[in-house]
Amino acid sequence: MSFSQLFTHISNLSLRQTSNSSHLPSQNHLLGLRGLLVIQSFLFTFFQTFLPTAVANSANTTGPLYQLILRKSLSVLFWNESLIYSFIILLSARTICIPFLAKPDRTVCASAIFRRNLRLWIPTFIAFSLSATAFSTASTSYITDFLTITGNVSTTAPLRLRSFLTYFNALFELFWVTKSYSSQAANSAFPAGMLWVVSVLFQQSYTVYMTMVIAPYTRASWRVKALLTFILTAWWVQSWAWYSITGLLLADAVLNMDFASKSRCGFKVGKVRVPTWVLYGLMVVGGVVLQYLFIAWRPEFRNAELYGHTGLYTGGGLNSQVDESEPQARDDNYLIVVGVMLLVETYEGLQKILRSKLLVAIGRRSFSVFLVQPILIYTAGIKLYLRLHSSALSHEVSTLICFLLCLPLVVVASEVFYRIVDVPSMGVAHWIWAWMRK
């Protein structure tokens, strides 16, 4: 079999297996939701680079008035980094357990566990290698010049990897770190500093896998109580398991407990039946209000909640030594994410919107977009800006032109990456698993 035939076979195998096992048609709204999140991640990456003052929680706290207005309004909901990665982590947990919960078979479970590392590692390896080639074999002084010209202190030039050993260790440790995710070398060497999310997704995947095996063998009511206890204890120690086990519980309720129909029936308060959308809506509104209060009004108290957990790695008391520079599982994000997920899982109308062909297509390519977009923005986007700036164009005009270039460029490059790397990586994982079982 020639290489091209093998490549075609693996790609076809991946597409067939994906449609048969990894995604149930009834769960396609989750792909649409992923599509929305990756669009938001593109906006965050672009704005953090070119309009940092317009990004919630960025280090650029002063700037043009229009950016400050965006920072305190639209950015809170539409390109808020902490909300995006919180949603991604919970949604990943909600998704990866679907095959086993839909078909609780030991082979399905073993296959998911075995293939997960290959599914994440192969695309990450290719994207990280491309990034290392772009930023470690050539000078990144143009990025430093750009940051100086624009006054951007919210991002930095990617760390240059000086040797193959440094490159190898950075990539290797990406799948081993269990804390201080954003300060690891791989994240520092990758543009935009969002690669740490892969570390959390990988680690939390196995938290979900180890927990989901109880589903077929326990009573639903006791399972719910056990997982709620798990969520509370994970919240207390400030573990990302707080989010991931919530995703697992939600998936279990949807697939095994007829959550949608029960949720639509509402609940009684005295003699009055209250629709559940009121409760879910209050959760979303509560989270949004907290976001606006501590981003637009009193940003100095933004991280106060982080000190209300136990200091798991710093002592026996409260978390008095929390590292605020690290990504954190937050209460306000949790309220928004869970509230939105409950609304989506309850109402078919919302699911129908998310099942649109465009959003589902973007969702299938979300990992490719996530990996490709920062590389292109930090190469083609910044270089184009510098060229335009040297032509005496204003910052706003230069930024608009860069946006109009980067958007289609990311779309095309992500599609290429998806077909050449992402889809075959799923096929390779299935192929190796099949070979292991022979």
UniProtKB/TrEMBL annotation:
Name of the featured protein: Acyltransferase 3 domain-containing protein
Source species taxonomy: Eukaryota, Fungi, Dikarya, Ascomycota, Pezizomycotina
Keywords: Membrane, Transmembrane, Transmembrane helix
Membrane-spanning residues: 31-51, 83-102, 122-144, 194-215, 235-256, 277-297, 366-386, 398-418
